[in-house]
Design brief:
This protein is an alpha/beta fold. The chain contains 11 helices and 15 strands. It has helices spanning 40-47, 69-75, 91-102, 106-119, 135-147, 165-178, 191-197, 215-219, 234-242, 276-285, 300-309, and strands at residues 2-11, 14-24, 29-33, 55-60, 63-64, 76-79, 153-157, 183-188, 200-205, 208-214, 222-229, 246-251, 258-263, 290-297, 317-318. The chain starts with a strand and ends in an 8-residue tail after the last strand. The structure holds adenosine-5'-triphosphate (ATP). Adenosine-5'-triphosphate (ATP) is lined by residues 11, 16, 34, 36-42, 81. It comes from Silvanigrella aquatica.
Length: 326
Amino acid sequence: MIEVNGLVKLFGDRKVLHNLNFTVGSGRICGFLGPNGSGKSTTMDILAGLLGPSSGTAKVCGFDVVTQSKDVKANVGYLPDNPPLYKEMKVKEFVHYVAKLRGNSSQDRNRDVDWVLNECDVADVANRIIGNLSKGYRQRVALCAALVHKPKVLILDEPTEGLDPNQILHIRKLIKKLSEERTVILSSHILSEVQATCDEVVIINHGHIAAKTSIQNNVDKPLFYLYTFASKADNALHWFQQRNYVLSAKSLSQKNNSILVEFGKEFWSDNSGVNIANVTEQIVQQNFPLIGIEEKKEGLEELFFEVIRSQPGQHQIQLSPSGELL
Ligand SMILES: Nc1ncnc2c1ncn2[C@@H]1O[C@H](COP(=O)(O)OP(=O)(O)OP(=O)(O)O)[C@@H](O)[C@H]1O
């Protein structure tokens, strides 16, 4: 649905996007993460057909953003960083106006406007002046404007920026609902937001892609188990160190009788013959006085800081070799 190949953007002689490559499959929600100034909005502007790349290609729904920008715009709904709203207009009047500009046919326009007002939960304020609405409502009106022509792809630049937790939850649910029939790419600084909303994530740092991963398949998996024993755990430590599916096992000096065990990738595969259930059974058979197992997950936050700390362009973590995203 979205295909980016070797995308480069220069502003004057300053290169702000360096050879970006990624794809987002149909019906997926892709989070676009990165520090301030890393190039998220520039990439989104290019994908929306509003800004030309310096080299490389980007296609949306099979249409090239440069040579077929009209088709791209017809298939894309874009919610920019600061969405343009006519604050003195009433909500319904404004969305109607956008529908006309977008070319919705005159016989469908009323129906399309009513549909989008309901879809974005703003029907109750249809006759209110936009400038008098709360920020959360204004953001949903802006979403109406991005959606009224029924695009197949939604591009949302920081859709929850500046909203309170309640409004964030509302927009998050709305994005999930909208994604049932669309491909969505959204940028955000809020890592928990991306983890809760997206299927996959692209992390961009200084204009370079630093990581791409599928969230459900990779980021959420437990990486470590912390085993706690009732008495000295030296023989248990030795036992874990002998297992070929254990990457590392060490005593934790700050936690008495605890061992941190990190498992290899094969531990998680269905056909490796090892899993948490039979490992626990084996430990019990060893008569180690095991009193607790705690799961440690690697979250998006750890991944984000790991890649952001590394040198731009030097390091790319690609956790999804099966490649839905790539
Ligand atoms: N029109 C422009 N002319 C010159 N430089 C620009 C222009 N637009 C963006 N830039 C620069 O390109 C770089 C990437 O900016 P961009 O807005 O894409 O980053 P971002 O990741 O969206 O940042 P933020 O999270 O702060 O919104 C920044 O250094 C910015 O100053």
